[in-house]
Amino acid sequence: MDRVDHLQRTDDVDDRTGNGGGTARDRTDRIDGADRTAGTDRTDGTDRADGIGGSDGIDGIGDPRRALGGFLRARRGRVAPEQVGIAGGRRRRVRGLRREELAQLAGISVDYYVRLEQGRATQPSPEVLDALAGALGLDTAERRHLGTLAEARRDPAPRPRVSPLLRRILDALEQFPAFATNHRLDVVAWNGLGAELIGGLADPGRRDPNNARYLFLDPAARKVHPDWADRAAEAVGQLRVAAGRYPDDAELAALVAGLSAHSAEFRRIWASGEVVMCAAGRKRLWHAATGPLTLDFEALQVPAAPGEQGLVVHVFSAEEGSEEAAALARLATAVAAGTAVV
After folding, report:
1. Helix, coil or strand: residue 313
2. How far apart are CA 227 and CA 234, in angstroms?
3. Which residues contact 79 (CB under 8 A, 6 or more apart)?
4. Cβ–Cβ under 8 Å, residues 332 and 174
5. pLDDT in tens, 278-330
6. 302 — alpha (psi -120 to 50), left (phi > 0) or beta?
7. Which residues, 6 or more positions from 180, have their beta carbon under 8 angstroms from its beta carbon?
8. DSSP three-state, residue 340
């Protein structure tokens, strides 16, 4: 990766140094010595590299600066030293990259990088964020999330409404399973086929209306979603993006805290720093009336207001004449007759 020019700046902005930051040995001595209690690589659990911040709560919720540090820790923990040309060896005490290694790869001073992880540095420049993203191998969605956390904005959570027009559109898509979710993954609107396809949403007694709680806390979700691990990672990644955008959303914080308290798998995926944004693709599902289904899906954005995140409409379909299209038609007939059962 091309190294960027180095600048020496104050604590509240970038501190990008070349030789001014000392040798790698000097920087390590500073961290292992006087700076040890301020957030270095530890193995005793007080400074975890898993993205969960001990007794103070979950990194990624409520405090953008802390969320930035948690995200960076989690992501450097996912980069094997060998991937970036660094000898691993058995005696390494840290999972992934050390702080000084990531700082060197990104071309920034170790001191400044430590302050970023500790939430003590603000206003990192786009060049610094690009350098960190390159060193960590972040994709487009992850780089965007990194920028959101660095901005430390405290936008109010959107309160999009389900308009009569949106309900008409969902009802008109009677041959296509469709439903709408908000940023907390609450399913707030659906058509009959969509409700049935994802576990019987129209009947409150059959499944939780929040997709994340359903996936992690309802065993039935693993049958409806054969690729459960992929769906679970998507849900956590979407919640992490929402938490970065809306750090003051108390309902979102309560949802994440509840899932963390009741699901070890949720905690593990959250700790990995997973970031996902809705897109198009294919998904495998299962329904008693059809058996396994592999369907195309599209995520359509419905803004709450200009520039504000609103609802996401998820629409499933199958190629005309395919076995999946015939199976969807059978499910639609069963839904219309009231005989579909998960």
Report:
1. strand
2. 11
3. 96, 97, 102, 135, 136, 137
4. yes
5. 788 999 999 998 999 999 999 999 987 766 668 999 999 999 999 999 999 99
6. beta
7. 162, 166, 170, 187, 188, 189, 190, 302, 311, 312, 313, 314
8. coil
